[in-house]
Amino acid sequence: MPASRIPSLNWLRVFEAAARTESFARAAELLNMSAAAVSQQIKALETHLGRDLFVREAKRVVLTETGRSFLPAVQQSLYSVETTAAALFGTREEEQVTIQMVSVLAIGWLAPRLARFEAAHPGIRVNVNTANLVSDFRALLPGRDADLQVAFGSATDFPEGAERLMGETLYAVAPPQIAEAIHSPKDISGHLLNEVATHRSGWHQVLSGADGTDIGQCRLRMVDNTPLSLVLSASGDGLALARAPATDFLTGRLGLAAVGALAPVRGNQHYHLFTSQTRPLERARSCFATG
After folding, report:
1. Buried b (16+ CB within 10 A) or exposed e, 172-199
2. Residues 165 and 272 sit within 8 Å (Cβ to Cβ)
3. Which of 249, 256, 252 is nearest to 241 (CA)?
4. pTM of the predicted model as reported, rounded to 2 decimal places
5. Which helix (H) or strand (E) holds 241?
6. Under CATH, which architecture does the 95-167+271-290 domain have?
């Protein structure tokens, strides 16, 4: 019975190249090896697996049924390694900065600015991870640690030295035809309200200053992020709260209009920027932090 682990991962590279080109000689050229070495490594892999992977013909090799079944898994694994290596390490000529950001800010604020930043700084590539909860910013997986983090909360939630970037202004939005039909705060009671469970500021704050409304009498749907609440509203499924400036891009693209019968309110938390506690602030990170 063959061992579970393949002793040499290079055997897989050789197998994939030979399968793709249907030629040991051509695979040898691609891999800068001799045809004899390719043949030997293929034979070693077949011996290890206990199955033939190729039928050797006069001028080419053809995958067996077993070889055809094995090839997709090998290609996917090799491509995954190459893609991850390219994403993590890039080229020697470019610097990389990895930023972890609250998802709504990444989608609604960073996205329309990122291309302009990279065009202005062609030697820097920005990788982006998203999160929502403060705890998410403290529990990064190995290999996904960020150079810069932008999280949302109160100053006491973040490391000493975290820089306050911006606050938020909340206002109700809906498709234009729905927004125009709401003439007074009392009309809100006839609509479903999409509430984001992870935010401390929400509909209770917006409605507290509106005469004739009682949040206890409203129908609320709980969702876990602002982009989802905005998309639901854009589809005609309830009202949502925009959170300027983080959602300005999204509300515009979704065609949402402000509900004029409800006054905007300031949120009580802010976005904060802080840097990795374990890495020095390299040029790329410093450049991104300062815009």
Report:
1. bbbbeebbeebeebeebeebebbbbeeb
2. yes
3. 256
4. 0.64
5. strand 240-244
6. 3-Layer(aba) Sandwich (3.40)
Those residues whose C-beta lies under 8 Å from the C-beta of residue 44, and which sit 6 or more positions away, are 8, 11
Burial of 289 (0-12, 13-18, 19+ CB in 10 A): middle
Compute the half-sphere exposure of residue 69: CA atoms within 13 Å on the CB side of its CA.
5
Enter the tokens of residue 165: 């970037």
User: Could you say which of 3.30.565.10, 3.20.20.70, 3.40.50.2000, 3.40.190.10 is the CATH number of the domain covering 169-267?
Assistant: 3.40.190.10
The residue type at 263: A
Cis bond before residue 245 (omega within 30° of 0):
yes
Which residue pairs from 280-286 have beta carbons closer than 8 angstroms and sit at least 24 positions apart in sequence? 281/147, 282/95, 282/97, 282/147, 283/95, 284/95, 284/96, 284/97, 284/121, 284/123, 284/124, 284/147, 285/97, 285/147, 285/148
Evaluate the CA torsion angle 61, 62, 66, 72 in order and state its sign: positive
Run of H or E including 180: helix 176-180
CA distance linking residue 217 with residue 213, whole number of Å: 8
- Per-block average pLDDT, block size 10, for the chain (291 residues)? 72 94 93 93 94 91 94 90 70 74 89 87 84 69 70 80 88 96 89 89 86 79 93 96 94 96 90 69 56 56
CATH of domain 10-86: 1.10.10.10
